[in-house]
Amino acid sequence: MHFNTLQLLQREIRPYRDFPARMPPLEHVLPPLITIRAGATNVEGYRMSRPYTNGYFDGYAFDRDIVYEGEIRDYSEGPSKILRPFFDWVWAKCGLVRPDVESLA
After folding, report:
1. Residue 92: in which H helix or E strand, if any?
2. What is the CA radius of gyration of the chain?
3. Contacts of 64 (CB under 8 A, 6+ apart)
4. pLDDT category, 25, cuts 50, 70, 90?
5. What angle do CA 10, 90, 80 make, to 5 degrees?
6. Strand runs labelled E in the chain
7. 3-11: average pLDDT
8. β-bridge partners, 38
9. Which has the closest alpha carbon to 5: 75, 91, 97?
10. 22 vs 39 pLDDT, higher one
11. DSSP category for residue 63
């Protein structure tokens, strides 16, 4: 995944993450749970571009479609923390381990 994809997803998820804070307080109601689904379709055999490698590719997408579904339970978390499990999932589906850094620009 290219860094611009991360920026786009962060921008798009922000209004949904902030939605519960704009709701009026309600007693005896569970906080709303937001489910996110993200992925890529028809990617079997594609390779992952590795950051910091000057265009080096590694790993292969083993499945035709890579689909991740997660939940937002803590609305104070930033987009990069919310989306981190998705990007870890994509890397794992390509047989790779994502480096433990926030930005892979």
Report:
1. helix 79-93
2. 16
3. 41, 42, 43, 44
4. low
5. 25
6. 34-40, 48-49, 57-58, 66-72
7. 72
8. 68
9. 91
10. 39
11. S
What predicted TM-score, i.e. pTM, was given to this entire model?
0.62
CA of residue 72 relative to chain centroid, distance: 11
Report residue 47 CA to chain centroid gap. Answer: 18
Q: How long a stretch of residues is the chain?
A: 105
Report helix, strand or coil for 39.
strand
Amino acid at residue number 99: P
CA trace torsion 41, 44, 45, 47 (10° rounding):
40
What's phi and psi for 82, nearest 5 deg?
-65, -40
Residue 13 CB coordination number (10 Å): 19
Cα angle value 73/64/101 (rounded, 5°): 45
